[in-house]
Amino acid sequence: MHPVLRTVLQRLALGVLTLFIVSIIIFASVQMLPGDFAEAVLGQAATTETVAAFRRELGLDQPPVIRYFDWIGALAQGDLGTSFSGRAASGVDRSREVAELVGPRLMNTLFLASMTAIIAVPLALFLGITAALKRNSFYDKAVSTSTLTTISFPEFFVAYILILLLGTLWPVFPSLADVSREMPFWDRVYTTALPALTLTLVIVAHMMRMTRAAIINLLASPYIEMARLKGEPPARVILRHALPNAWAPIAAVIAFNLAYLVVGVVVVEVVFVYPGIGQLMVDAVSSRDIPVVQACALIFAATYILLNLIADIIGIVTNPRLLHPK
């Protein structure tokens, strides 16, 4: 078997094993959440027998091990379960499938993440490459200082500053990002502008600094010096010789930040009241909606593992020692 294929398969197997272990951690963590859904719905006046009957109806009376394997078995068949929301003490069941709740919210989060990535990734690569070419110049110091300044502040602070400046003092964009599926595409882009700008300012610094460091490290390599001695223009030296060999560390940090756009977007969604999966998870935790919390957490974990797996594969397939083994 080719070394690249073998290494990729090993990474895939490791990713599946990691996701299985994370599912156990998620389930155990959710079980340790304070409060109980049945008691919250029925209220303090409910008798012990009524609470027990309601818990039995929800399946919460089963041992944790059985509930875990029921959950993971349903997941293997593509069933995320049924939300607890909509269950009432009167016996009326207006609950919905978890997939029905999560699907539209996940699409909204992916829309916000894609919009941010389209802006942030090219901007970070451009700033990193140009800063490396003009190392120790005023431009390099200005770019490094400005990006490190934005990343030094927490997301909610950057969000509130942008709301103050661009939503209140100079009302260019709406302060609340309330989008819907019926909204036209460009209206969604306009409404999502402030959350996307917030996330862009937060993640650009990581990618820019890694790109700059990787390019500077490679500029001292012998084959770069040879390309320069041949008279090749600086842009060709960077794009053809330096950048392809710097993809492994750059891809890793890009994947990490793209994963953050899905996994770590909770604070930004809450600030802008954006109807994404992060906001859904916060609401589900508040109402003790266990199936929704577990589904959201597992989606976050799967996204993080998948994007880091893709970064590993990019690093593998761009490694000349693996592509051309002796």
UniProtKB/TrEMBL annotation:
List the GO terms this entry assigns under cellular component, sorted alphabetically.
plasma membrane
Homology family: Belongs to the binding-protein-dependent transport system permease family.
The record, for CDD domains, names: TM_PBP2 (cd06261)
Bilayer disposition of the protein: Multi-pass membrane protein
Question: What keywords is this UniProt entry annotated with?
Answer: Cell membrane, Membrane, Transmembrane, Transmembrane helix, Transport
- The protein's name is ABC transporter permease
Q: Which InterPro entries match?
A: BPD_transp_1_N, MetI-like, MetI-like_sf
> Do you know which Gene3D superfamilies this protein is assigned to?
MetI-like
Keyword Transmembrane (UniProt): yes
| Superkingdom of this protein's organism | Bacteria
ABC transmembrane type-1 domain mapped to chain residues: 106-311
Set out the biological process GO terms recorded for this chain's protein. Answer: transmembrane transport
Cited Pfam families:
BPD_transp_1, BPD_transp_1_N
Subcellular compartments: Cell membrane
Q: Which residues form the signal peptide?
A: none
Q: Transmembrane residues, as ranges?
A: 12-33, 110-133, 153-173, 185-205, 246-272, 292-317
